[in-house]
Amino acid sequence: MPEHISPETRLAVREDASFQPIGDEGEAVILSFESGQLFTCNKTTRALLEAVSRKGVWADVLDALAARYDAPREKIASDMAAMARRLIDGGILTIADEPDA
C-alpha cells in the first residue's frame, strides 16, 4: 500500500463496514462487520466518509471537502490524508484500485 494517497487514488468504504449518521450534530457510527467493533466519529470524519462514498477519487473527495469547509485546500488535503490513512489502517476504508504507475 502506498504511503502517499495520490490525487488519482480511488478510495472506498470497505464492503464489510457501514456508517450511519446519528443525531443533529453531524456525528456517525461506523460498524466493522469483520471485527464486530462499533466506532463513533465526529462530523469531520463523517464528511470524509460521505465524500469518499460519493466521489471515490481522492482529488474529487478533496474538492468536495474544500467546497464544504472554509480552509485552504492544502490544509484540508494534509489533514484528510492523515485521517484517511487511519481509516485505512483501521479497516474502514480501502484503496479500491491503484493508479497506473
What does this structure look like?
With 101 residues, the protein is α+β, with helices and mostly antiparallel strands. The protein has one domain. It has three helices and five strands; from the N terminus they run ββββαααβ. The chain has a three-stranded antiparallel beta sheet. Strand 2 and strand 3 form a beta hairpin. Helix 1 packs across helix 2 and helix 2 packs across helix 3. The longest helix has 17 residues. The chain is globular, with a radius of gyration of 13 Å. The model has no long low-confidence stretch (mean pLDDT 87).
Strand content: 15-25%
N-C termini distance: 13 Å
Would you count the extended β strands for me? 5
Domain count: the total is: 1
Please tally the helical runs, counting DSSP H or I stretches of 4 or more residues. Answer: 3
Across the major sheet, the strand order is 2-3-4
- Order of SSEs, N→C? EEEEHHHE
Secondary structural class: alpha+beta
